Amino acid sequence: MKFFIDTANLEQIKEAQDMGILDGVTTNPSLMAKEGITGTDNIMKHYVNICNLVDGDVSAEVIATDFEGMVREGEALAELHEQIVVKLPMIKDGVKACKYFSDKGIKTNMTLVFSAGQALLAAKAGATYVSPFIGRLDDISTDGLNLIAEIRMIYDNYGFETEILAASVRHTMHVIDCAKLGADVMTGPLSSITGLLKHPLTDIGLEQFLADYNKGN
Ligand code: E4P
To answer: Is the pLDDT of residue 68 over 80?
Structure first.
């Protein structure tokens, strides 16, 4: 299972990268704005900074909602760095743009996916990643994890190679449940990754081991 971090915060990206377990980064316009990164030039520079910090794929989202605009923006994003994955919204022109980029060998991430049917379209269009937003489904009392299970079944039925990127992950249990269900990738905040470290018995055990070692020294 790949671990992506869902942020535009360079310090948090570096912290996850330094742990040696980071496989990539996802961002979106809201995450950029949260870090105070606004304006096309600054956003483009920030993507390059992120790529220079990590080894894996970095999703960069188009703003255009029409096919020509998405192609123009996606090509500019893809030229920024070899690690860039063009992130496209799950709308009709987004699917068309996904097919365009897939045919050109440019990696894509279909975002804002909330149903199995949308995920099927993403796979048909050759998306590298499909991003079902599980946390946002949970927010409206709909089981986000069930969507991961449905997509896994559909993709396995037909051998689709599109990777299921569980997005809108909010906490550690989302990560563990996505792993159980066979999501290929998860993207979440740093806390959803570092939270996996925590267990009181680890802390108690380590304290005891150190105390016992120090008895003889
Ligand atoms: C995915 O690529 C999105 O950036 C993200 O996971 C959305 O998460 P949120 O619902 O916590 O905003």
So the answer is: yes
